[in-house]
Amino acid sequence: MKNLISVVGPTGIGKTRLAIDLAKHFNTEIISCDSRQFFKEMKIGTAAPSEEELAEAPHHFIGSLSVQDYYSIGQYEEDALKKLNELFEKHDTVILVGGSMMYEKAVLEGLNDLPEANAENQEKLQNILDSDGIEKLQEILKVLDPEYYAVVDIHNHRRLLRAIDVIWQTDTKYSELIAVSQDSRDFNVIRIGIEAPREELYDRINRRVEIMMEKGLLEEARRLEEFKDLTALNTVGYSELFKYFDGEWDLDFAVSEIKKNSRRYAKRQLTWYRKANDIHYLQIGYSQKDFEDLIQWISEQFQ
């Protein structure tokens, strides 16, 4: 049976480097499950792999779409599995990497068939959003499904609308519906995580935001301002700068909000991964010996 190694962990912890090192060791290729790195116009703000990193190992689903393209998680599941089957024709092992939790789940397990959006519910929820603000949607979801509230991006109104709509339609928690595995997979899965003390992770995130600004995130966001209402741009690092462009915030405050929201996103990712009991962890700053031990452990799992 073929093997898929999934590299997981919160934003800014070093997943890209570990995935490349694993790909080089196994002489294989990498599939991204970072749902924002799909978009070619968002390289800086999503910390997409650099040209040098892309040259170290073949990557798939990096910069493959435009922000104007509609691309659902269902389409991704279909495309990623098709690509995985192609890669398994020539490789025994393939690497999956990214911090978009539901996109990883789509590849590893499949997603439950959720109902289509209900127009009446959507209209009602949109009216609540317009009259009472996103805080009211957050409050509704927290009561209906505290487990999903703990991991969802509560500043993404589309995610809130979708979850509440599905709960109302099915009378079932959204977190329970998406936890159901739909499909069996004909490959082995090993999940590798990187962990760090929270303060160290937060320091890395803050510094990474500063590096993004130095690399030209402001200019990248300005080029995308005309598309700010698209789903792809409802993303940390861009939505804050759009408020700066609108004159709502000054630049220093916008950057501080990017840091804060990035840390919050990392916290939600950590909450999600902590629920899993199948992740084998490396400590951040791992040594060559640690990496060799990891390879040995992986080899034992494959036997």
TrEMBL record:
Chemical reaction(s) catalysed: adenosine(37) in tRNA + dimethylallyl diphosphate = N(6)-dimethylallyladenosine(37) in tRNA + diphosphate
Lineage: Bacteria, Pseudomonadati, Bacteroidota, Flavobacteriia, Flavobacteriales
Site (described: Interaction with substrate tRNA): 100
GO MF terms, alphabetically ordered: ATP binding; tRNA dimethylallyltransferase activity
Oligomeric and partner information: Monomer.
Function, as annotated: Catalyzes the transfer of a dimethylallyl group onto the adenine at position 37 in tRNAs that read codons beginning with uridine, leading to the formation of N6-(dimethylallyl)adenosine (i(6)A).
This protein's name: tRNA dimethylallyltransferase
Coiled coil: none
Keyword Transferase: yes
InterPro entries: Dimethylallyltransferase, IPT, P-loop_NTPase
Pfam families: IPPT
Ligand binding (substrate): 11-16
Interaction with substrate tRNA: annotated span: 34-37
Sequence positions that bind ATP: 9-16
SUPFAM superfamilies xref list: P-loop containing nucleoside triphosphate hydrolases
